[in-house]
Design a protein that fits this description.
The chain has 293 residues and is an alpha+beta fold. It is built from 8 helices and 10 strands. It folds into 2 domains: 140 residues, MutM-like, N-terminal (N-terminal domain of MutM-like DNA repair proteins), CATH 3.20.190; 124 residues, Helicase, Ruva Protein, domain 3. α5 crosses α6.
Length: 293
């Protein structure tokens, strides 16, 4: 799932490549992906892309005051096209959900092809969402977001944790508590902070809270720095290359050399290092038993 660093990088990519281009048209290949009807998507035609930004894990393309917003969910991605096919896609065929056609830039050479981007979604669970709104707060998921993980200060962060009698893994990934962090970067942050994913947030000491905040900021800042400037096509591999424990089950921890372990749930898993995070204890797979104490 694209998280804060990847969405930040996609927004930067679109600011560089899409700003100043005029919308020709949009094609919808997955009707269920479009969540709004007023204004209609046709209202974009003839308008100019003026910027792109991020709200948590939502990508926001500003088009002359209208906001084309997408949540890529678990299997979604944005693919930039320097040359767009003029043939409308057939609905329900393949991973394509949405396509936006854009003109060449105003200073382009004669004959330069139209550009644009596709929103695609892999897998059978189709959760990618597209919204066209006048105000980003009209998107329910954005209106419900907690403070952004890259903008919250330590005092506010500590107050958030103090009110959460839940496991850290769940707190870090709950978007109404803290916006932008998903499954992968929560594993990385907890590893960097040397904390168990099942530690209770409200029971952390002052020093643990400070360490967790520093680890969060450092992990996300590093990931953003590595991601911004990459083409959309290379962001996934860049993300994987920077991971210490997430998706590295069975491999050695890069800090201590212990074997990275996994806990699996119904539809996802987490990874951690026993030596770095749990005092050498293995956490039980939640599919089979309760946490080993």
């Amino acid at each position: 799932m694209p998280e804060l660093p990847e969405i930040e990088a996609l927004a930067a990519f679109l600011r560089e490549h899409a700003t100043g281009r005029v919308v020709i048209r949009s094609d919808v290949a997955a009707i269920n992906a479009v969540k709004t009807f007023d204004p209609p998507l046709s209202a974009l035609n003839g308008l100019t892309v003026t910027g792109a930004s991020r709200h948590g894990k939502f990508l926001d393309v500003d088009i002359d005051g209208l906001h084309l917003i997408t949540h890529l969910s678990r299997g979604g991605w944005l693919q930039w096209r320097d040359k767009m096919s003029p043939v409308p896609p057939k609905p329900g065929r393949g991973p394509l959900a949405f396509r936006l056609h854009l003109t060449p830039l105003p200073d382009a050479l004669d004959g330069e092809p139209d550009a644009g981007f596709d929103l695609t979604e892999a897998g059978t669970q189709k959760r990618l969402a597209v919204y066209l709104v006048r105000d980003p707060m009209e998107v329910p998921g954005i209106a419900a977001l907690g403070p952004d993980a890259m903008r919250v200060d330590l005092e506010s962060f500590a107050a958030l944790l103090a009110g959460e009698n839940r496991q850290l893994k769940g707190v870090l990934t709950h978007q109404s508590v803290l916006a932008g962090i998903g499954n992968a970067y929560s594993d990385e942050i907890l590893h960097a902070a040397r904390l168990s994913p099942f530690a209770i947030a409200s029971r952390l000491t002052e020093f643990q809270v400070s360490d967790l905040y520093s680890a969060m900021r450092a992990t996300l800042t590093d990931a953003v720095d590595r991601s911004v400037g990459q083409r959309a096509a290379t962001l996934k591999s860049e993300k994987r290359s920077g991971l210490a424990v997430h998706a590295r089950t069975g491999l050695p921890c890069p800090v201590c050399g212990d074997t990275v372990r996994e806990v699996s749930f119904a539809d996802k898993s987490l990874q951690y290092c026993p030596t770095c995070q749990t005092g050498g204890k293995n956490l039980a797979d939640r599919r089979l038993s309760r946490l080993v104490k």
